[in-house]
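Thanks for the sequence, V.! I ran Aspartate racemase right away. Repeating your input here for the record:
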Amino acid sequence: MIDAIPPPSPGLLGQRKPLGVVGGMGSFATAKFLEILARKSRVERDQDHIPFICLSVPNIPDRSQAILVGSDAPLRQILERAYWLEKVGCGAIAIPCNTAHLWATEIKKALSVKLIDMVEITRQAIEDSRGSEARNLRSISIGTSASMHNGLYAGQTESDFGKEFYRSNPKLQKDTIKIISDVKSGNMANAQDNLTRLVQAVRSFEPDKIILGCSELSAICGDLAYDNDIVDPIDILADACIDWWVAESQSLPDTLASRS
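Predicted structure:
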């Protein structure tokens, strides 16, 4: 039996700096991201998983509403959490929230460690998968009002998909917001059914790619994630975090890496 809790040892985090995760936007989506990260790591022992510190304090104001009214209140709180993670020793920061990446430039400037930019790596993943064809792809992104209005991933217009899409777009946005709200309130079954219907509606406009531009959509997409036309930024973010960790491990001398 331990009589007293010992203070943290200098080697608690090992020689390699862990991943920092700014969570709570929303909490269920953060949990699903961490699940995906663990599942995709493909390791055989607990000790071989990517070490991370997740700070999930969910009292950050609604990102979409703030952006639509020109407020940066969420940015200040996101930075507070990212600073905290940097201070405790994290070597890179991941933010499993698409809308928060509308402030990616400001976040990168404020941090001294790497922000694994979900929007940037998603665009790169699409380009890598299609090569020279990528610039001609017709993509539709579904997500929060702010991400759709600001063209976070794709700026879909009447010239891209025709007048019928332009007329239908407000309903698609309204349906997407309802799904996101249902996920946040725990109404998963209803949200999953409605997401399937929404994706079918979007497919009627024949896009090359449908980007799940909100982490709540990624969290409930299920088997849709395996469809060739679906792009899941949360899945891509998990891959990028693993790539970062592997690269960091390889950059260490063998003697230090073996002790971590």
